[in-house]
Amino acid sequence: MDVLGDAIFDYQQGLYTEDIITKSSLDEEDVIPLTHLFRDFEAMPALEQKALNLCKGKVLDIGCGAGSHSLYLQEKGFEVTALDFSKGAVATTRLRGIENSIHSDILNYKENQFDTLLLLMNGIGLAGELKNLGGFLSHLKKLLKPGGQILLDSSDIIYMFDEDDDGGRWIPTHQEYYGEVTYTMSYKNIESEPFTWLYLDQNTLKRAANTNHFNCEIVSLGEHFDYLARLTLKK
């Protein structure tokens, strides 16, 4: 089942009739507009624009989706590889003219090394749960060339939990970390299996980076609890 890929591929083929619906463990239903996944550079959020401008050398776009970031970088002359676990997404990137695209889970990909690993639209969420973050970063480390960088954006979703009279937050006790959110996606009456996505506050990212021998620089802050970070290997 490839809910995201089916939706993206339909849009590319001119068969757009509806958007993706998401439901989460935060009891919220939301919509992913397919037009948002095909936006050009000018329509991207400032954090994404900043990240693309910071790219250097050979780039791996992890969780590339429809390939909008890869396409921009390719047009700027970068050697970029678009990678996604979704067959429909990878097929779409090829139809859009991206020269190098790979269908793979990032944790199974070991073939090359890169100067920049790009994890946009909260791509660090691919780690799923906080307990997986160390192993995830350890694998990314193997894909970096000497002097390479990881560029990622994420959000601190603490604001989504109810606040008590003392200014604290009511956080469920059944999960290790409040940034772990379980989702399902549906498109044309087909629903995905549940999957967990990880949102990281800055301090948690910094601690995980330090444990895995990365420097962590917060490059920019967004407008709504989001931020752009750059990880580089410690010397």
UniProtKB/TrEMBL annotation:
One Pfam family here: Methyltransf_11
InterPro entries: Methyltransf_11, SAM-dependent_MTases_sf
GO molecular function, a single term: S-adenosylmethionine-dependent methyltransferase activity
Entries under SUPFAM superfamilies matching the protein: S-adenosyl-L-methionine-dependent methyltransferases
Keywords: Methyltransferase, S-adenosyl-L-methionine, Transferase
GO biological process terms held by the UniProt record: methylation
Residues in Methyltransferase type domain copies: 60-151
Membrane spanning residue stretches: none
PANTHER family: METHYLTRANSFERASE (PTHR43464), UBIQUINONE BIOSYNTHESIS O-METHYLTRANSFERASE, MITOCHONDRIAL (PTHR43464:SF19)
The protein's name: Class I SAM-dependent methyltransferase
Organism: Maribacter algarum
